[in-house]
UniProtKB/TrEMBL annotation:
GO terms for molecular function: nucleic acid binding; RNA-DNA hybrid ribonuclease activity. Residues 1-263 form the Reverse transcriptase domain. The lineage of its organism: Eukaryota, Viridiplantae, Streptophyta, Embryophyta, Tracheophyta. SUPFAM superfamilies: DNA/RNA polymerases, Ribonuclease H-like. Gene3D superfamilies: Ribonuclease H-like superfamily/Ribonuclease H. It comes from the Eukaryota. It holds the Pfam family RVT_1. Residues 701-831 form the RNase H type-1 domain. It comes from Lithocarpus litseifolius. This is Reverse transcriptase domain-containing protein.
Amino acid sequence: MLEYLNETLISLIPKCQSPASLNNYRPISLCNTVYKMVTKIIVGRLRPFLDKLISPIQAAFVPGRRGLDNVVIAQELIHSIDLKKGNNSFMAIQVDLAKAYDRLEWNFIHKVLRAFHFPDGLISLIMSYISSSSLSILFNGGKLDKFQPTRGIHQGDSLSPYIFLLCMKFLGYLIDKECMEKNWIPMKASRTNVEISHLFFADDLMLFAKVDKKCAASIKRVLNQFCLESGQAISEVKSRIYFSPNTPNSMKENIYETLGIHATTCLGKYLGFPLRHKGVGRNQYNFIVERMITKLSGWKTKFLSCAGRSVLVKSVMEAILSYMMQGAALPMHVCEKIDKGKIVKSKEEGGLGLQSARAKNIALLAKLNWRLYQEKEALWARVLINKYCSQSRRRSKDPNKLPCSPTWIAIKKGFTVFEKGIGWNLGSNSTLSFWNDKWVKGQTARELIQGPLTQREFNLSVAETTCQGSWDWRKLSFELPLDVKDMIKAIPLQIYGEKHDNLIWKGSHDGDFKLASAYKLARSESLDAQTFQGYWIWKLDTLPKIKHFLWLCFHNSVPVKKVLESRGIIHDACCPLCRNHEETILHTLRDCPVAMNFWQKFRTSQNLSNFMHLSLVDWLSTNCLDSNLIRINGIPWSIVFPLAVWNLWKHRNNMVFQNSPLNPNLHSLCMKAATEYYYCMGKGLASKRHSVIPVCWYKPQEGWFKLNSDGASLGNPGKAGRGGIIRDSCGRWIKGFMRYIDISTSIIAEFWALRDGLTLASQLGITHLAVELDAKVVVDLILPRKTPKCLYTSILNDCMYLLEKFQQTVIRHVFREANRGADSLAKGACSLSSDFVVLDAPSTLDLNVIVNSDANGLYSLRLIVNTLPFVAS
């Protein structure tokens, strides 16, 4: 490799606030761009195989694995250590590798790559990149002389982490070997749980073992061999051992003599999370508040507007809080320090849209519940399930009173929101309980009826109440209410293929967990609640800082004298400019002679009859929102007015606090700012033009048939129907169909129509089929041939299954004018008395006219909108 391509600069990043030695710095490699490109290509080739190459115990850098998984396992094991009684004691060892990247021996890396059967060419390439580097340290803004390293890997390029993980697997291999030979006795989180001997996250190591001399000797032997082979060194000063309370002091001394690692009563943090121990106080999470205060009290915040500070607070909360909240229930006093008044309300409720710490914590814990259900086979999930969902625990008189870890307490706190947000999508031969699972539009069937059930009815599964894709009510000893029947009949059942029941999140379109909807559930908000009169402020077409100012006006929080007097800050509320009236917000912005003179220069009073007589709220909303107001020099008044209010407020403050003179050209400056904003934001650079295009139905090619299908819903959701037509290459009617669906949404009706059409085409023996729909969302879901987890997964699975039955299929979206026949049948099906009807010929005269028009190539006109570029005159 060319030497200049591997020249690397070393930047020293301090690990603490007052570094006193080189050990307090972390060296970061600033690699050459070409070097980074090549290593990224290598990593891209390796990434698909990493999951198989790297042990599941190693949670770092592997796609799909999270550090939180290791935190959960560590927390459970520490909790179990705290509860240990009797003769068997256990220990957790935090091992610190000193300068782990810098000490890695190159010959050891070569051996590891060989052991993983990397191709010789790739090994040579990787080793050349590692061994040919030259380093220069950045010092006081300059570059020191180059030197050649003899070991270690870069801490700053994309390949190094994966090289390190592969090398760490050797340590895992040594540990597993000792465990198999019974020299090292690993630990279990509960009696029937999986055995855990070690947890790795890059160079963060935690070891778990029984406390005895044999295990200690085994641990020492493993660490010594690993360090000897790899060049690593254990920092005995930073490493610590946590013993279970039943460990004798004499045994602790023996372990120290063997390992040279001191005992501790608190392991501190693991991957940023405090490891909770017995007797640890409620102040363990105070560092979160302190860290946020440090981030928000920097000098840069003094130069930010209210809108800028709002963005900063959101980013700081996202960076600091979200990580901690995903695996721990923060104490109430910590959340109360973060949540302040109305700013943590949603914008619809009159707040600034900053998320409540408590509600977000609950929402993230609901996500942990979701992950626990979806990842049952993952190691962290198995540890929790075996520990807290075992048969012995369920058989106890009061399982809730049994001891549990802080992680499980946190999971239980998020369970209520998780339970509210989930629903079920029925698979074929569904095993869900007919009465007790949430499969009826996110509710249980039991919630929809009153009265007792027999034991046989109570144990009914959904599969037992269905027969060949339809509902069989004979298994019930009573008649369900008509509205309940309609709700159930509108749920599409999967007819073809074998698919399991799917857990879905009701608040998302694709069925996957959505944090935003979980947060709303945690806040007990309605999805369409808009209680704040001034919510329109956030939709204004103006600068963010002006939106925040208008928000302050609505909340009577602009610091004018009257507001300050009402809060007991000052005693004189007289306007400092006119000395005739109290300085209210409205007086400041409109009624003061200075403001009146300013507004008259816009000559708007003749067009706004109530301009000087409206209340503050009405005055702001009328001028900001009324689309019928005038334009000034071509700029809409709804853009000019907010900028004028803001500039008037700033200019008035300069007059009051800096004794600046009145600027007679202030209105001109406002117009200049409004014009600049209008054109910089592209408002005047494009204009919408309408045009008419011809749309018609096209015949399929020779030997092909065409299916047009459509669904309709009167109300969405409401009474729904579906219909479709199958025609040949001459445009002749082959078959048509109609079906009534009861209460449903238009998208489910569209899918149902497609399934009926594909089923009918398959029964007719058609092999080459073109499919046209006017619902683009359905086409977009069908074309990738991937089934999302959503409310209509079952019927989508059927459509996918049926499409595979044809030799060739083509699916495309068309405008409604090219789908008139199917649209007519779908609308007619909404009032159909029978369930399903197959038509051998057009059922109405109008439908016959449409079919003949399509066959003859007659077109309809459709109005479309074109965006044309702005051309200056």
